[in-house]
Every structure is written in C-alpha cells, then in structure tokens.
Design brief:
This protein has about 140 residues and is mainly β. The protein has one domain. The chain contains one helix and eight strands; from the N terminus they run αββββββββ. Strands 1-2-3-8-7-4 form a six-stranded antiparallel barrel. Strand 2 and strand 3 form a beta hairpin. The radius of gyration is 15 Å and the shape is globular. The protein starts with 5 loop residues before the first helix and ends with a strand. The N terminus is likely disordered.
C-alpha cells in the first residue's frame, strides 16, 4: 500500500485519465465549452502517472475550451468514457498532466461505453479540479 501524506504528496506527478472517467454534462455558451466530470480518474505517482507505481483517485473536474469553433452532436449523458484524448498541437494526451493550462488550439475526442461519441475543438484548454479527492486504489 502506498501512503501519501504531507510534503511528499505535493511532489507527486498527477494526471487525469480519460478512460473510465465519467462526464456528467457539457455546457456550451458564449463560445466557451465546459465539460464536467463527476468522476475524473486521477493518477498520482513519484514516477510517470499511469505507468509507474502510484495511487488512483476520484475527483470532480471541469475541462474548459475557449473560442469553440467545432462542436459535434451532444451524446447522451451522464456516461463513462471507454477511450478518449485531448490533442494539443501534435500531442495526443490520453492521460492529461495536471495542472493543465495551454494557450493554443486543442481538440477533445471522447468515446463512451454506450458507443456515443463527442468531439469539440477550441482554444486555450484548461482543467480545474473541484471538491476533495477520494482515494480509490494503489496503482501497481
């Protein structure tokens, strides 16, 4: 079991994994899209999150895209993702490093367990974590 406390906890690398995260709803207004996660699967590790030993957590989160220029049809929500990525520049993030804030264009592509799909493109993506993280498991 990995125990995470105090200053060591602050030095861990953190990433949001889109696979198995749950989107509760999506709001698009005034050219800004907010994708709300009721359960964002968060990896924490002293090494590389999602690859090296660490812990898995659940936390609420919001991914924001500004100046939205492309929006696919809305999927039935809430739903859990079976796969997805956030492409920023030429980098496709399936595990998004946290904290995350970029000043360039991005494309979010999600596939849900029920077969639904969602794609959106915009600028200046960032992620906010909300609430208290809940410990789920050790990541081997």
């Amino acid at each position: 079991m990995v125990i995470v406390t105090g200053p060591v906890h602050d030095k861990l690398k953190t990433a949001l994994e889109l696979y198995e995260s749950r989107v509760s709803h999506i709001v698009v207004s005034g050219g800004i899209a907010s994708i709300y996660f009721s359960h964002a699967y968060i990896h924490k590790s002293a090494g590389t999150p999602g690859r090296d030993r660490g812990t898995g957590w659940s936390q609420e989160a919001r991914l924001v895209l500004c100046e939205v220029r492309s929006l696919g049809p809305m999927p039935p929500l809430p739903s859990t993702m079976s796969e997805g990525f956030l492409e920023v520049g030429s980098i496709k993030h399936e595990l998004i490093p946290l904290p995350f804030r970029r000043k360039v264009g991005a494309r979010l592509s999600l596939t849900f367990v029920d077969g639904g799909e969602f794609e959106i493109a915009g600028d200046k993506p960032y992620i906010e974590l909300h609430g208290v993280p809940i410990y789920l498991e050790d990541f081997p």
